[in-house]
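Per your request, structure below.
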C-alpha cells in the first residue's frame, strides 16, 4: 500500500518545506520526493496547503475523554484516553499513573501490556509518576501513598511489558545504585516531585536520570546559593526537560529564561492532561478527592493545580504565541524531542525515511485537521 501526501507543507529534518511529496509504504515513510505528483500511488492525499508534522508524543497523560487512568487502569481507559488526545494530534502517549499503591501500579503495567498487545492506537508504554516522591514536593499526590523505592518496587518497575517504562522519582528517596539498576533494565528515569539539592542530583544524573518531570513544578527551586533541581536540570547539558505550557503552571518569562539556558532539542512539551481533555467534565475525583475544572485550570479543594486542562496542539500553540519559539522548534518539542527522550527516535518523531508514518496535519492556527498512526488515518 503506497500513500502519497501532496500539495502541502512538510516539516522534515531540513525544516518546513513546500513543493514536496511524502511517500508512505505499508505504514512507514519511504521517501520525501521532490516531485509534486506521484505515479503509481494507491492513494493520494491532498493536504490542501496545510502543514504536515510528525505526530505529537506526550509522555505525561493522566487522563482524557472523561477518564482518569488512576481511576480505572484498564485497556478500555487507555483506549478512551488515546482517542481523546488523538483529536489534538497526539499519535503516541504514555498513560500516566500518579502515586498509588503498588498493586495499582502492577495493575496499570498489566493494562498497558494488554493494550499494546491488542494494538490500541498510540500507546507507547507507561509513565509511573510516583509513589517514590518527596513529601515536601508531592503537590496533589496523596501523602499516604508515598514510599521509598526499594528493591521490591524496583523489580515491579523493571517488569517488561512490551513498551517503554518511564518512572518519575525523587532521587533522594532511593539510591544511585537502584537508579542504575532501573536504567540498566531499560527504564527511562526522570527526576520529579523532588526536594533534592543540586549536589544530591549529580550522582543520580550520573546513574542514569535522563530527564526532569514538569520543570519548575514540584521541585527544589533555583536559589542564589542552592541551584536546586531547577538549576541541576538547566545546568546539565544532555537531560530532557518536560514543560507544561498552559499559561498557569509556570510564568512565561520563567519559561523563556529556561529556553535561553539550554539547547532547544532538550525540551519536550507535555500535556499533564486530566479527564477534562476531550470531554465536557467540570469535576472528577482523584483517590476520593474532588478536583474541579476552573476555566482552563484544574485545582483541588485547596486551590492547588492538579494536572492541566491542556492538549498537545494547544501546548504547541502556546509555545509559539506565549514564548516566541519558532513553529519548527515548537513542533519538534512535541514530537522529535520526546521521541529522543524515550529512545524511540529510530522509529518515530521525525518525518524521514524509515520512520513510522505517525503524522499530524495542522492549519495556520495549529488546529488539528487529521492524524495518522502507522499510515492509518483517524
Ligand atoms: Zn506531577
Amino acid at each position: 500500500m503506497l500513500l502519497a501526501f501532496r500539495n502541502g507543507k512538510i516539516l522534515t529534518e531540513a525544516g518546513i518545506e513546500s513543493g514536496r511529496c511524502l511517500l508512505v509504504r505499508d505504514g512507514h515513510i519511504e521517501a520525501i520526493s521532490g516531485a509534486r505528483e506521484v505515479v503509481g500511488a494507491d492513494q493520494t492525499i491532498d493536504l490542501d496547503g496545510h502543514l504536515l508534522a510528525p505526530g505529537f508524543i506526550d509522555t505525561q497523560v493522566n487522563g482524557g475523554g472523561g477518564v482518569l487512568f488512576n481511576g480505572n487502569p484498564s485497556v478500555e481507559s487507555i483506549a478512551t484516553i488515546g482517542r481523546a488526545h488523538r483529536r489534538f494530534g497526539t499519535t503516541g502517549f504514555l498513560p500516566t499513573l500518579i502515586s498509588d499503591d503498588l498493586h495499582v501500579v502492577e495493575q496499570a503495567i498489566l493494562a498497558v501490556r494488554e493494550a499494546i498487545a491488542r494494538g490500541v492506537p498510540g500507546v507507547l508504554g507507561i509513565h509511573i509518576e510516583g509513589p517514590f516522591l518527596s513529601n515536601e514536593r508531592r503537590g496533589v499526590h496523596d501523602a499516604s501513598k508515598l514510599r521509598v523505592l526499594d528493591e521490591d518496587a524496583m523489580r515491579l518497575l523493571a517488569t517488561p511489558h512490551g513498551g517503554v517504562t518511564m518512572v518519575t522519582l525523587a532521587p533522594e528517596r532511593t539510591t544511585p545504585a537502584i537508579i542504575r539498576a532501573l536504567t540498566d533494565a531499560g527504564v527511562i528515569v526522570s527526576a520529579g516531585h523532588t526536594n533534592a539539592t543540586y549536589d544530591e542530583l549529580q550522582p543520580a544524573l550520573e546513574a542514569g536520570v535522563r530527564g526532569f518531570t514538569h520543570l519548575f513544578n514540584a521541585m527544589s527551586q533555583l536559589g542564589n546559593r542552592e541551584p536546586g533541581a531547577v538549576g541541576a536540570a538547566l545546568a546539565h547539558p544532555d537531560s530532557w526537560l518536560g514543560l507544561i505550557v498552559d499559561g498557569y503552571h509556570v510564568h512565561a518569562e520563567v519559561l523563556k529564561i529556561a529556553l535561553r539556558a539550554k539547547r532547544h532539542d532538550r525540551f519536550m512539551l507535555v500535556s499533564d492532561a486530566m479527564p477534562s481533555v476531550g470531554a465536557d467534565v467540570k469535576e472528577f475525583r482523584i483517590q476520593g478527592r474532588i478536583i474541579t475544572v476552573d476555566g482552563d485550570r484544574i485545582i483541588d479543594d485547596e486551590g492547588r493545580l492538579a494536572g492541566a486542562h491542556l492538549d498537545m496542539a494547544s501546548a504547541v500553540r502556546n509555545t509559539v504565541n506565549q514564548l516566541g519559539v519558532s513553529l519548527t522548534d515548537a513542533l519538534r518539542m512535541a514530537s522529535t524531542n520526546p521521541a529522543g527522550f524515550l529512545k524511540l527516535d529510530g522509529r518515530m518523531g521525525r518525518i524521514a525515511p524509515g520512520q513510522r508514518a505517525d503524522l499530524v496535519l495542522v492549519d495556520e492556527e495549529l488546529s488539528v485537521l487529521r492524524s495518522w498512526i502507522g499510515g492509518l488515518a483517524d
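The two ends are 17 Å apart (CA to CA).

Regards,
D.
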